[in-house]
Predict the structure.
Amino acid sequence: MLNNLIKKILAPFWQKLYKYKSGRKHIYRYKNLKIVINPSVFSPKWTFATKIFLKYIEKIDIENKTFLELGCGSGIVSLMAAKKNAKVYASDINENAIKGLIETKNKYNLQIQCFLSDLFKNIPKIDFDYIYINPPFFNKNPENVSEQAWFCGENFEYFQKLFQQLWQINISKTNVLMILSENANIKKINETAYCNKLIISNIHEEKQFSENFIIYKIEKNHDK
């Protein structure tokens, strides 16, 4: 209870700091990569979720697998997947994110197909082996493209659209993985998935400082 109160008090401070830091182009270093972060693009420096996702990728064999990072932001997950010789596709609604990823992948001669896309809108119809999603989950309407990295809409519109589109494509043989913080309204997100004939299953949990992060697998609910 105390931890949640502290997080609520600090949240406005962190968002203001992020807004200030994200207003300029900079380089984020991860292992042996120098990643271009353009203005308005969410930096992995400010989130544990991305780092947990990266550690998870390191443990699985994705060589020659088709891999989509949906909403790639900095593209760090896509870059590391490409270094593991996956066939990587990356998308984002923010043009600056795509430009930064293209600049970085070209610098390191990594093979990643990049798409400016609102969720699956402009992505080729491929039976992916893996789809990775690190979604916005604060229920507030975003005021600009930068805030879409944080806010999923007052009524969780992002998840409604995501789950509708996931049901419409073939994910029967796809590992669709999504990471959420315990600070998300997981009950509401789970209900939204269920209403769209999907189920989300907890497959991995990890605590960073006082915050718990959960990786979920998303599958079609054929019983509904």
